[in-house]
Amino acid sequence: MSQTLLLDRRERLLSLEPLIAAHQPLETRMPAIVRRAMLGGALVVSSMAMSACGGNEAPPPEEQAAETMAEAVQQMQQAAEKMSTASSDQPLIPGATLLEHLPASIDGMDRSNAERNETGAMGFKVSTASASYRGEDRSIDVSLTDVGGTGMMAAMGAAWSMVDVDKANDEGYERTVTIDGNRGYETEKLRNGRQETELSVIVRQRVLVKLEGKNVSMDKLRDALKALRVQELVGAS
Prior knowledge:
This protein has eight helices and nine strands. The protein is an alpha+beta fold.
């Protein structure tokens, strides 16, 4: 299956996520990142099945909508039951600890809108921290996400972690990268005279780091990534 088709199918599956959430009872509703991760897993399974059948192109989306919805929900439920009973020796990194790794300033821009959060449902626990850094005509938004012992869930939620991407056009580029041994994805585009950059990395197959820049170069985002010291959160294991 081509990279473009795989990414297109990911977008279609992720568009179902709000519908799936609405069909879950509130008291057992999974955190959004977990639902997206489940859909990512469903994408991998379905893509492998298509490859095994000779790599035929998928039917039009309108013909697959009901079937895809049912399959996605089933995939999520089965994975939830399995993973919620799995034991883990990796405790969740507290949101407060994640927040401590968002520095007071990045590249001369002060931190604002700092938030931390810990949620859990059906045996899943998710810890997040985020902040914004604003300058006169530039900005960086940063988020850290940990899913504890189910660290591979972070990878499942990011399609770029499962495929190799290297695309470029007149507007910019997007590609998968490796940074300090960690799988990552970066994109840089010029839109309406404004530079837009994004850098995402899964550190030690556990903590998902995302940086989004406006009028900030990719080199600056990489410098900001180093300033977060995320490797210290997960250690060398």
